[in-house]
Every structure is written in structure tokens, then in C-alpha cells.
Sequence to fold (266 residues):
Amino acid sequence: MNRLLRGLALNPFTLYPLMWLHRLPGLRRRALAYIHLRGTGLEIGALHNPMPVLPGVRVRYVDRLPETDLRTEYNEHADVPKTSIDMVEDAHVLPSVADGSQDFLIASHIIEHMESPLLALRNWLRVLRPGGMLYLAIPDRDRTFDRNRPVTAFSHVLDDLRNGPDGSREEHYREWMRQVGGLNEEQIRRRLPSALERRRSIHYHVWDPPAFLELLQRCRQELDFPLEIRVFEAIGNEMLVMCRKTKEALINIRASRSAGMHCHFQ
Fold:
């Protein structure tokens, strides 16, 4: 099966009629990795589901906890084999990773767990070499359990970048418990101290496709993040984004909607 998919990924005449089908998001996310990722790079938070890559592509795996602690926190997947962790790091800053040292960085369903998404994005771009690829998969708010939550505004994540996330942390947990957990105010009051103390990993932020596309564009235009958006697609319950690190990004958008939102950047 892997050999067949690699063949499809390298053959646009067979791949492209398939990859837009909203029933096949797994094929599309794999194809993007096969097409765009080369060399040596990092994947953050792969757990039991690392991104497939072509033979010869080397990946080091980063997580915030050692494997034994991850098995405890994600006990529903305790018996599922986990990806071996090469580096235990704070994904916001990646302190031990040198500037410009990586050919690519994969963060699949990770940025919504970042208390300061812009700080994370800035450092993910920092560790990429010029021309390196940042591959993101982000849950689509409207197609997940987050559907009742308000979309995170750019002004909010900008404030988290400038002032730190401490001031918004409690409200994130309250919103999560109320809108996702279905708890009433008394239940939230009882459970909130424990959640804050444990710093349980939740979706601190949520986006739909227009909101996340706006975030990327404003990072480039207002904060001078060195990124060029090469792929932006909404497919299934997620958005797939491929950005190239560059000093001068050209953002020319042609958008259409089929099963989702697809933007091609040239």
C-alpha cells in the first residue's frame, strides 16, 4: 500500500483526480508529505500517528513529555505503540534546536494546543533553513467537537504573544469545560483548580479556514514572519497547510470551494 501511495504522490496524472475527494483526507495529507518534504526535519507531538514520509527522509520526534508520561496522560491510547521520542522540548520555543538547522517541521493537530500559537510559529520558522517547509494540520472548528466555540481572533493570539498567555489561560479552560465538556458553572468551579494545576492539554484556540488563513497572512504582513503559503486546503475535518520559509513571500491567492476551501499560492 505504501509503495502504491508513493507512486501516486509522484505521479500527478493519477494523484490529482483523487486528492480532492473529501472522503480521502488521509491520502491527501500523506501525498503532501511525499511531494514537499525532503532531507532531515522534526515532527512535534506525533504520539501514535506519525506523518508518513518517503524513504530517505529523516525525522526526529519531539514531544513535551517522556513516553511514559504521555502514556499516562493519554491512557485511552496506552496500549497503542508510540513513536519513539528523540527530544523532550517545549514546542513553543524548541530551545535546543539551532536556527536554520531543519529542512522541514511537521505539526499535525498541535498548534491548537499551543497557549501562544504565534510564539510557536515564530520558533518553528526560526529552526527552518531558508526554503524549508512547515507542514501544519489544524482541526476545522466547524467540523469537530469545537463547533460551538467562538473562533479565536487574531487580536487574541497577538496579545498572547506580546503579554504571555497567563492572562487568558483560565478563560480557555472555562470555555473548554462549558462548550466541549458540557459542564455547568458549579461543575466548572469544582474542576477548574485541578485542570489549571495539571495544565491539561486542551484546544486553547480554534479556527475555521478563513480565520486561520487570516492568521497566516497577518503574520506575514504585520509581524514579518518569513513564510510563503504554498498550500492551504480544508478537507475532511481539518485544514492542511504547507508554508515555505522565505525572506520575501509572494501571496497570490486563487480560492475555490468544493468539499472545502482550497487556496493555491504561487
Notes: The chain is about 35% helix and 20% strand. The chain has two domains: 2-145+207-265, 154-198. The two ends are 32 Å apart (CA to CA).
